[in-house]
Each structure stands twice: as C-alpha cells, then as structure tokens.
Design goal:
The chain has about 190 residues and is α+β, with helices and mostly antiparallel strands. It folds into two domains: about 110 residues, no CATH class; about 55 residues, no CATH class. The protein contains six helices and eight strands; from the N terminus they run ααααββββαββββα. A four-stranded antiparallel β-sheet has the order 1-2-3-4. A four-stranded antiparallel β-sheet has the order 5-6-7-8. The relative contact order is 0.12.
Amino acid sequence: MTATPGSFGPAAFQLVLLRRMADFQPDLAEEARLRLGATLAEQREANRRWQAMVRSPRSRGALARYRSMLGPPESAERRRIGDLECEALLWPVPLWPGLRFEVLAAPDGAVWNEWLVRAPGAPGPVLTAAGDLRPWSATVDEVARAFPPARPMEGTAPTRWRLAFTASGRPLVAEFTYGLLQRVQPGETADRA
C-alpha cells in the first residue's frame, strides 16, 4: 500500500471498510485487501488509527474527518428527506468503481448517515429473485426498491443495517455493512439471531 507515514487517506479508509466486511465475507475482504496491495499489519494499523480518530476527545467532527481523509467530495448536493434538509457528499471508492461513499450531513455538520451507494449513472444490479442477492452485489437502497415493502431492522453494530422482505415467496433478512450487501438469511432464523 502506498501511503506516507502518518497519513490516512482513501486506501487506508478502504482497509477500515474491509475490516468490518470481513466479519461476514472474509474471503472477499481478503481478496480486496490484496488488490489494494496492503498487508494484514497495514490493515490492523489503519483500523487502529481510525478507531483512535473516532474516539479521541479532541476529535474533529465526523464530516471534517471524512474531508481530511478522503479529500474534497466528488459531488455535494442539498437533499430533502421528509421534513429534513441535509447535504449529501459522495466520494469515489476505487475497490468498488460503481459505488460511492455517501455521507449525509445536517446543516450544522453533524453526520446522519454514512454508507456505500450506487454511483450516479452507474448500472445497478438486476434484482428480481432471492438468487440475485449475492454478497457485495447491491446496496441497502437497491434491495429495498427491488423487494417492496422492505422493512428496516436494527443492525448489530453502528455500521450495519438489516432489511426484512419477501423474495421468491420466502421471508428473508438481508444484512449490510457500510450499506453493501453481505448476506441473506431466512427471515425466521435471522429474526431470532
């Protein structure tokens, strides 16, 4: 991995994303880490530094942290969600060229949401049946739109989301890390987990 000592940029940030995704998809995360040219030690160090930044009592706000790590966003636009207005900022993620890392920020700079979304204009997956739901193939929004009415469920960690829905006549629960599909389980089994 090409990074200068003390820097924390897009490559290190992708290692942090992969660390959480490895909980569900260790083989895919390992392949992606190798594509980045990073060692396990570099991944552990990136995660350690990320956690230190997040937990530091002198930490900048989350939005400032993303801007300093990832540079200027590729795009920023005002967005209305219900009665609330926010700013949607998008950054490219080289591991997933068809996706962008999206941060939704309140007018005061507080971060409301941070996850991977489909890049504007990039073709999304064709999702018509349960078999189409492969790991890393779709985002939360894409699965919710493909299988209405999807019901959001509490995730098992701050960077995780779950959706309950029916596909191919079966109740299912999809699990996501940073907004990217990790796995799909039968609804009854996942609800008890």
